[in-house]
Specification:
Chain A is mainly alpha-helical. In chain A, 87% of the residues lie in helices and 0% in strands. The chains are: A mainly alpha, B mainly alpha.
Chain lengths: 145, 408
């Protein structure tokens, strides 16, 4: 069985993990220019990932495998939770509140980890099976982002 | 939330019976303290963690989790108290009552968790470790009951009485390595890479560490039954632990998240303590410092470190979920560090570290005139650390309730 979707999307998760770690590293010397840039990079990378899922992979999956609608809904509601944290993060950057910045990144980290675990162990393998020959297209699009 | 109270009780005995405890592992106060920590603190938290983790990691929720969880907790609490006071006062009736209550508790827990583990999918090595850990818990219980029967002078176990200390060692090894050690390994395979973004554990380790521990314990048990030496079996099991601890420290050294938080410090302490305990055993060291390293260095450390992450995250997660589903965006949910501030967690770790060092020094040099005071001070520091941990937990859950009310 192909695991192209699982591989490509999991790899993008790791790229986002690196960005989050970089945003935390940037806080070491309270250099707000660096912290602002790192936070922006992180939010952009994660939004790109959500975009690929919400407007491409998830609709295709729920169309050819309707039973996936409910787990997809859970994943999308967690995306909404993360977007709330993005707003809080940007607000902490604007207010130069270092402890809020770090606390929000920590919260985001844990939310992302448990979210990714569910996607990587359930939803992506399901997509690989259900989308069959089309899986390669989604994987390539994710890799190109 | 009840677990820290048992550790507080253990700390109280350390303060009151400082002259007895670390001088010999056989004093009633020592036996009571160890069981308060092992059952009341550690096993209670581990059982709760299994109920929480099985649905998330293995897609297999425990059937009637709330009911079984509550029943297990009540039985464990009562059984631990009966057993510990039975050991402390040498009261035979309490010992029997404690043993039987704990037996019912472990059977109920094993039945519920065992059924969920049979259905479990995914996280192959973690699920394997959980299955072996459950077997470890059963064997520890069986050996414990056997020892109680021996203490009470039952005819059928009289043959074992000459070897009493060796059977206690076997009970201890199954509990510490077979139950605690194996479960820690299985959980670590998931949480260590997740918490601090480290490389995953290598496959060779996940394939071999838990089986090495279990095989070592089986070999030691068999050797014991045949009247032979147990060093080969224990040696194999401890090698498994030693290699696991080394690999864990290496993974954490290569982590991507740069910050050193209390959870990471607790993991470092626990892994270093586990390695020191294994090496000390190999060099024929005294049991008392090995006991401090195992029960305080690992047994108090790991649950404390994990609670600092799990409690704030679950509080935040549940509140945020309710906020989204109720569309109550007028309430602002605080982030994780607001539930348990990082600084408080670091101070709590500092107190804990003082207690570990004091107790370790007292266990290494029990003949020193002031070692009694080291134990007492160590007990006080333990009480301070655990009391502070408990207060932080209470504060976190009070904050959760207050926001929960506002979202209602």
């Amino acid at each position: 069985m192909s695991s192209r979707i699982t591989d490509a999307f999991s790899q993008d998760h790791h790229r986002c993990d690196h960005r989050l770690a970089a945003a935390e590293s940037a806080a070491k010397d309270s250099d707000w220019a660096r912290m602002t840039g790192a936070a922006q990079d992180l939010v952009e990378a994660m939004e790109r990932h959500f975009e690929q899922e919400e407007s491409s992979l998830f609709p295709a999956l729920s169309e050819c495998f309707p039973a996936s609608a409910s787990p997809i809904e859970v994943m999308c509601s967690e995306h909404a939770q993360m977007r709330h944290l993005f707003e809080d993060l940007q607000e902490s950057v604007r207010g130069q509140d270092r402890s809020a910045y770090l606390g929000i990144l920590e919260t985001l980290h844990f939310l992302v980890q448990q979210h990714n675990y569910k996607e990587e162990s359930v939803l992506y393998p399901l997509a690989d099976r259900a989308l069959g020959a089309r899986a390669g297209d989604f994987a390539e699009r994710m890799a190109d982002v | 939330m009840a677990a820290p109270l048992f550790a507080l009780l253990a700390a109280l005995i350390l303060v009151l019976e400082g002259d007895q405890i670390l001088a010999t592992r056989w004093s009633p106060a020592t036996l009571a303290t160890i069981h308060l920590l092992a059952l009341g603190f550690l096993t209670q938290i581990m059982c709760g963690a299994l109920f929480q983790m099985l649905p998330v990691l293995a897609g297999s929720p425990v059937a009637r989790a709330l009911l079984v969880g509550r029943a297990t907790q009540i039985l464990l609490t009562l059984g631990t108290l009966f057993l510990c006071f039975g050991l402390y006062w040498g009261h035979q009736g309490l010992l029997v009552l404690g043993g039987l209550t704990l037996a019912v508790c472990v059977l109920l827990f094993g039945w519920a968790i065992g059924a969920a583990l049979r259905r479990a999918r995914g996280a192959q090595y973690t699920v394997m470790a959980m299955r072996f850990a459950l077997i470890g818990l059963f064997v520890t219980l069986a050996l414990g009951l056997f020892l109680i029967a021996g203490l009470l002078g039952a005819e059928s176990v009289r043959f074992a009485r000459s070897d009493f200390a060796r059977w206690v060692d076997l009970h201890l090894a199954w509990g510490l390595l077979g139950w605690v050690g194996v479960l820690v390994m299985g959980v670590a395979y998931q949480v260590v890479p997740m918490f601090h973004v480290t490389p995953g554990y290598p496959r060779w380790l996940m394939r071999s560490a838990v089986p090495a521990v279990v095989a070592g314990l089986l070999i030691a048990t068999l050797a014991m039954g045949l009247g032979m030496g147990v060093w080969a079996g224990f040696g194999l099991a401890l090698t498994g632990v030693l290699v696991f601890a080394l690999v864990t420290l290496d993974r954490q050294h290569r982590r991507e998240r740069p910050r050193v938080d209390a959870t990471l410090l607790y993991w470092w302490t626990a892994m270093t303590s586990a390695m020191l305990a294994a090496l000390l055993w190999a060099w024929g060291g005294r049991a008392e410092p090995i006991g401090v390293l195992a029960f305080v260095g690992v047994g108090i450390a790991l649950p404390s470190g994990m609670l600092f992450k799990i409690m704030p995250f679950l509080s935040w997660f549940h509140l945020q979920y309710r906020q989204l589903s109720g569309r109550r965006f007028d309430v602002r949910i605080p982030h994780m560090h607001a539930f348990i501030p990082e600084r408080s967690a670091l101070i709590q770790f500092g107190l804990y570290l003082v207690s570990l060092v004091l107790l370790l020094l007292a266990a290494i040099w029990p003949e020193l005139a002031f070692s009694v005071w080291l134990v007492r001070l160590g007990g006080l520091a333990t009480a301070g650390a655990i009391g502070f941990l408990w207060w932080l937990q209470l504060r976190c859950s009070a904050q959760y309730r207050s926001f929960s009310r506002r979202l209602a």
